[in-house]
Amino acid sequence: MEKTKNILELLPGFNCGACGARNCSEFAQQLQAGISSLAACPILKQDRFRENKSILTSILNDFSCKKHQKPQGLIDGVTADFRLHPLPGESSCRETLACFSSTKLEEGQIIRYRPLGCPIIHFGRIISTNHGLLDVWVIGPCKLLGCDENFIDVGICMVLSFQGTIEGECPRVGQTVKFLPAHCMMGKVHAGIIVQLEDNCTRIDCIDLKVWEHCREF
């Protein structure tokens, strides 16, 4: 999303539709997705936009190279389809947890938990609760962060969903993917199904630490 904003700021901003898009914002999204090119904009050919066009060319070339460099898991050596970063303005990817603790939990509290199938203890701040499901940000061990807040130990939780932004080629809704959460301390590739996608912001459900053979590159 930030990349699209940077591209948009360098476009002429006339919203003339000559490129085939409805406006410059849509054209910026098409450029980032690689489904259009700068040549489609006749206004950029004008001498007054020469510098902007040069910068845009550099940005898109750099983005294209990074998009095709797929991340690799550290612990298993598996190649992921993309890396998942936090949503804009947030500290880590969001996780939706199924919590089996009987303790009453509230927004803002810090919990200590171990995701089912993961050997690493996680610390997370609760964003919201909904019938036993928790949305959290992973914040890491409190002592390492200089955090004096108390935490609540809730034991094993099941990670049901991730929310974040995609670095790399965007998949399709309904597609099974392999992804590497940027905050994962083990560098472990996860698997899941894309259930929501807006620009490069996504929600991934049915999270699994096992990477099945049908999770192929797209």
Automatic annotation (TrEMBL):
Protein name: 4Fe-4S domain-containing protein
Pfam families: FeS (PF04060)
PANTHER family attached to this UniProt entry: ACETYL-COA DECARBONYLASE_SYNTHASE COMPLEX SUBUNIT GAMMA, PTHR36214
The species this protein was found in: Mangrovibacterium marinum
MF GO annotations: 4 iron, 4 sulfur cluster binding; metal ion binding
Record keywords: 4Fe-4S, Iron, Iron-sulfur, Metal-binding
Gene3D superfamilies associated with the record: Electron transport complex subunit B, putative Fe-S cluster
Limits of the 4Fe-4S domain: 1-58
Classification via PROSITE patterns: 4FE4S
